[in-house]
């Protein structure tokens, strides 16, 4: 499956999804990548081909893997890639509402 990602595309009718996981022990988030429902290593030097990548490192990986240069993206979208990504994550986290994990003191 790693070879599929190295080609830069996935075959027709494949599924590539990302999951955001909360680690209670470290009170931090990690990202997992699934290909056709199977968790696979996340490529790149930031994530070291691990199956769970710390969220800040994953954001860095995605930012560096973007097709558009950040300045072009900003010109087209009116926001920086980081602003768009953060807004989408914030929006997703807001949809969790009552299901949000409550940190214990």
Q: Which tags fit this structure?
A:
single chain; 105 residues; alpha+beta; 4-stranded antiparallel β-sheet; 4 strands
Q: In whole angstroms, how far apart are the ends?
A: 42 Å
Give unreliable regions as ranges: none
- Kindly provide the radius of gyration, computed on alpha-carbon positions and rounded to a whole number of angstroms: 15 Å
Mean pLDDT: 77
Tell me about the biggest sheet? 4 strands, antiparallel
SS field, number of helical segments? 4
Shape: globular
In terms of DSSP E residues, the strand content is 15-25%
Structural class: alpha+beta
Using DSSP, what is the number of strands? 4
Task: Give helix and strand order, one letter per element, not per position.
Answer: HEEEEHHH
Oligomer status: single chain
- What count of domains describes the coordinates? 2
Helix content: 25-40%
């Amino acid at each position: 499956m790693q070879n599929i990602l190295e080609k830069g595309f996935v075959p027709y009718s494949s599924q590539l999804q990302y999951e955001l996981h909360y680690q209670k022990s470290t009170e931090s988030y990690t990202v997992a990548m699934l290909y056709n429902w199977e968790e696979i290593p996340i490529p790149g030097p930031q994530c070291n081909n691990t199956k769970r990548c710390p969220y800040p490192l994953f954001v860095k990986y995605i930012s560096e893997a973007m097709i558009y240069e950040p300045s072009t993206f900003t010109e087209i979208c009116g926001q920086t890639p980081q602003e768009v990504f953060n807004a989408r994550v914030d929006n997703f986290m807001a949809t969790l509402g009552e299901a949000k994990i409550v940190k214990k003191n």
